[in-house]
Amino acid sequence: MTHPALKMYDYHIWADGVIIDRLKELPQDIYHKEIQTGFSSVSKVLSHIYLTDYAWFDIISGKSMNEAIATTNQLREQIETKSIEEMKKIFLDLSERYKELLNSQENIEKVIVVDNPYAGLLETSVSETVLHVVTHGSYHRGNIATMLRQMGHTSVMQDYGLYLFMPQTS
């Protein structure tokens, strides 16, 4: 049986794909359009989701949080300027790397220690970290949905309940 955290990660991949596909359907200028909200554009929110996923991938892989943050800070400007088509590709590439990493774990409940420079030490597990990645992505995909509505466009359903009704490919 698939571990619940791995099933949730599969949902995360699906939901990212759903919102990215919706963004590809909209007028091109929507993606980078500056608006007055928590994030200044949809592209910045999607980049934030990607960079956070990337950082936690590095942490699960054994890097320190400081190393992971430094890497994502170096990537930020490059990622924020990508087109939605390019974002779809890098999200898919990262999800494949995640799947390989997670499937190679002997024990997904293995304890990892995260030294957060802002919050201190945290003992957590790989599975809890995956759940954090998923809930973080869900929260920010909600931001994107709100931003689209503010710009006069509809979003798309992407909740876990809908995912459960979808045919599963993994």
From TrEMBL:
Pfam families: DinB. Gene3D superfamilies: dinb family like domain (1.20.120.450). The keyword Methyltransferase does not apply. InterPro entries: DinB (IPR007837), DinB/YfiT-like (IPR034660). The keyword Metal-binding applies. Keywords: Metal-binding. It comes from the Bacteria. Belongs to the DinB family. This is DinB family protein.
